[in-house]
Amino acid sequence: MRDLLSILRVNLRDYPKENEVNGFTILGMADSVPDFVINTDIGPVIIWHAPAGLLPITGSEITRFTIDAPEGFHWILSQRDLQGGYEIDESLKIVFWSPEKIAKCIGESVIAGDLYARLAPKKKNENTIGKNEIHSPQTKTLRPQLDLSSWMSQRGLSGLVSTPILLEAKLWFIEGEITGPNGESEKCSWNITEDPWSNKISVIDNIEDLQDSLRLRIISPEESGWLSADNLKESVGSLLNVRRKSEIQEENQSGSVRSMLLQRWSFDKDSAIMSDKRIFVPGWIIHFEEEKVLHGLNGRMYSF
Asked: Which of 29, 175, 210, 286 could be joined to 140 by an S-S link, Cβ 3.0–4.6 Å?
């Protein structure tokens, strides 16, 4: 990032690290930046880097950034996209460069000869990755819920050959509100997995439980197996609606009586902002006469 800024004729000077915000690293401060970044003279600009990560940057993170970051104008070079549907208001004094914009700027610099790129040397005995294979720390896989050896042994299939694979799925990021019985609302965010193989959607509480994907063959479902964003909004309410205890006080002839009541808080689909990312379900191809896919979470077999 510093090389790119140098090419753009941005002269960085140090800025106190104690001002850093969680999820964002300060690269420094510049007294001025090129007009194509900010087309007005606004004085010093604090320049930030948002490192790569699984999740997109949400509106809540930007709100927290504006609260925690020092006063001034900010330029964020991000390796994470903004959550779909969210736009940064100009009044926040933030210029946001997405991974796509950074890549475009780097590509133009390479073509112009200002920045040099070279291929990383291939490691000895490293295999070429086919077009249906991956190996990326940015791609995640759900943890398997069954032991293959035990599963095959219990079914008298121990002699069959199996091949580990990845089944394509989606991780949805939802920001929205739940509405209480008296019209009050509360902002929430959720992570939802969509598994088109088992036609199941689930809430995932901790995305840190996901593991890095291995270099394996990927099998994708039929296109008709995916939910649209609108269909997901309709389906996800039953998962996101909650019941909460509340205390009510009633007056009668004996005096004041307190009681506990379960009240329903409902997911407001109309306020929801959604985006998705590709993830995988672990699985195996079981080599019968007609090959089948074994799902690594529910233990069921599917044709492909």
From this structure: 210
